[in-house]
Amino acid sequence: MQTKRKYSWGYLALAVVVCGVLLVSWGNLRRKQRLSEPVELSVIVRWQSSEVWENIRRGIELAAQDYNLDVMYITLTDGNSVQEQETMIDRETQLDTQAILLAAADQEALCQTVEETQKKIPVICFESGTVCPEDVMCVSADNYAMGQELGKLLLAQGVEQGQVLLVGADSPCQSIQDRKAGVLSVLEDYTISTTVCSELGEESELTEYDAVLALDTQPLEDAAQSLEHRPQKVVLLGIGGNNRIAYHMEHNVIQGIVAQNEVGMGYLAAKQAAEAVRTRASQEAPGIEYRVITKETMYERENEQLLFPFC
Amino acid sequence: MGRAKQVLTHWLEGFRSKNIQYTIALAFTGITLVAMLLVGVVLYTGFFSSAETMMKENNTRLVEQIGLNLDMYLKNMMRVSETAYYRVIKKHDLAVDDIGEQIELLYDANKDLLVSIVILDPEGNVLTSAPAAKEKAAQTAKDQVWFREALDKIENFHFSLPHVQNLFDDPDCRYRWVVSLSRAVELTENGQVGQGVLLLDINFSGIEQIFNNAGYGDSGYAYLVGEDGEMIYHPRQQLVYSDLFEEDSLAFVGEEDGNYIGKVNGQDSVITVKTVGYTGWKIVRVAPVGIYSDDVLFIQLAGLIGVVCLAILIILVNQSVSTQIAHPVEQLQKSVEKLENGDLDAEISIGGSYEIQRLGRTVQSMAQEMKKLMADVVKEQESKHKSELDALQHQINPHFLYNTLSSIVWMIEKGRAEESVNMISALSRLFRISLSKGRTIIRVGDELEHAKSYLTLQKVRYKNKFTVTFDTDPEVLELSTVKLIIQPLLENAIYHGMEFMDGDGEITVRSQIRDGQMYIAVQDNGDGMPPDLCAKLLDPNAEIKQGKSGSRGSGLGLRNVHERIRLAFGAEYGLSIRSKLGWGTVVEAHLPCIPYDEENGGT
Questions:
Q1: What are chain A's domains?
Q2: What is the SS3 assignment for B308?
Q3: Which of A25, A62, A268 lies closest to B301 in CB terms?
Q4: Each residue of B64-112: pLDDT tens digit?
Q5: A299–B166: do the CB atoms touch at under 8 Å?
Q6: Which of B246, B270, B291 is the last residue of a domain?
Q7: Suppose B472 and one of B279, B492, B511, B549 were both cysteines; which one would form an S-S bond, judging by CB atoms 3.0 to 4.6 Å apart?
Q8: Tens of pLDDT along A136-190?
Q9: Domain range for residue B527?
Q10: For chain A, what is the total number of helices (H) and then of strands (E)?
Q11: Cα-only R_g, chain A
């Protein structure tokens, strides 16, 4: 009788072991299955043209390969439209996307939508974030520091007094506002007055300005195009980098730029989104590299790699 | 060492003390599991060994293929360069002939692979190029590595690291990554031979395609490093440049071609290195063991579950087998234990294998033999007891007969014929009851009748010196008693209590039931006995001396009665004596209340 009882305990122990092994196996297989399932990611940008953020897209696509992401890109019909971004965020949430990457068109106006959405799915900002009460991760270079570098670049061009036109600085984007603050923090010690405008048109009168600073890629491209054929030369500096900007820099239309690693930014933002979906753990926003590039240094190894990315 | 031996001994002793089923099951299971473990380890290591070998072979094949394609690609570029030099440049005087068209043709033939073909003078000025493009205003060919190396080592081809071509303006704002193949060439101008540089900018995407088309899919990757460890191509090139993907490009620069096992990005990997012929570049193929570790994990888990299930199955089978072997032995052991405890009627379990069945039958035969022997012994003992009982009864008859006959003889001598007849009649009744058809157990009524007959005889002999009172509970009359037990008590009372008494003797025979037991007491008012004598009377080992009174006997009659009662009904029954000097004696027989019938009368 005692032996039988002992065997019963043995069987029970074996059954427990088998159940344990099966549970662990099941959990492991389930975890692997979950990891192997693609994450549906919606990328909502604040630009109209896909060319402006081509390098960011390259980075996102690299991350999509590495982290098994199914990416939907959404551009706006009207650039920097808060309303359109809100509509897109709601629509994507309803379509059961698993995470949203957002280049926020407005640092404040989108707060309510972003915070409500974040309760359901991860929302990660890239390039331009928000200043919401609840912390929303933003993957971007230090925009304030980039603004400061732009200010220093202006000074290095010999412009230490006079009038400077800040193009695109009226945007409510967090990145633009931070860059503007950075520029102004450097220029405040000099007798330089600044004027803000949204864009530089073909007919814009520039005689009164000693320099033009474009705070974003699109305004910089537009400004370069506007100044390209003008006889009057104005110092043009800006934040942003792509082939067209490099071309204008080689042709002395743009004298210098501050460029961030947009490929890296796109890659890291998408990676953070994937990890947020899979691990549900909050993470710290990674830092993004930026460099000051002029015509003379654009073919230096690191600058070349940043300005003309592979992919 | 001593401690280990002690532990081992203790363990073995513990093992030996377990039952046979446990021992068999444990031994079978242990051996089977050890065998499974060994086989598992061998298969597991064999699997990994063969998987590693397969990976190495696969890596080698892939790297060989990439190397072959890359070598062909670069040789093709070198042939284009040779053609441009020997078929075009060398054959023409650049001051006289326009070689642009021929260079253009050569470019057109290879434009999928080339970005441009350029001939430069020693100052870095572009002499001819295809496709025709506007030279950059501030191009700095002279400062570039490919230009300097071509002029420094004029006999060689020089392959540069990938870089963005910056010789020509592209109105479409295209900046293309190229690998520059440069060499020094002799340029003839107005019959004067001077030096120049022939540059072929190889489209970097060509190299990229060679690697991408290698077909390794998700199973690792391959990259290309220069002689000094500079990264030329990597599938995650931009991430490597951005420090988002770590690759130690120097790790295998100094290594010979072949397979290596090492850690790359913290993962165990099989690394295969191959040097590309002319350039000295190295193709490094990295296949993390993790690329099949998912499967391995699954295999491990599946294997583990399989092993556990198999182990359970083996344990169950072993237990079943051990039960089949051990159960009959255990049953046989239990039967033997019952035999040991005296249960000779216990059923002997016969089952299991032939040997165990045979053993069971042998034990069964032994038990039967023992039972027979025991029965014989019991029979013998009973016979012995009966003999003893008969002998005890036979001890009474001559003793009493002698006394009675002496009285009758005395009466006849005195001429008391009528009294003699009465006595002989009483003696006749006495003997009738004594005989009782050979029964040893009779009714109490008969026994009292017998006592009365005896007293009739004794009263004559003792001239009515005493009176006898019978106080009988009617319920006792039909109960059973050993015959002739009251008469010796009366005899004792008369001989030892009445014979030397001065006054009238009184004897009371009291038969009653108390607490479900029957008691027949004979009480006299004689002199009584001292307590020590009283205690010795029923002790078979005690010797009794003659008392001062000179009374006869050594208690033999009382002991006979006591023994007979005990033999008939058990040791808890028998006589008890209470006596006090000057007061008298009570001898009481304690008997069970067993109703008398014809059937138990003989037992």
A1: 39-140+262-280 (3.40.50.2300), 143-260 (3.40.50.2300)
A2: helix
A3: A25
A4: 999 999 999 999 999 999 999 999 998 888 888 888 899 999 999 998 8
A5: yes
A6: B291
A7: B511
A8: 899 999 999 999 999 999 999 999 999 999 998 988 899 999 999 999 999 999 9
A9: 395-602
A10: 10, 11
A11: 25
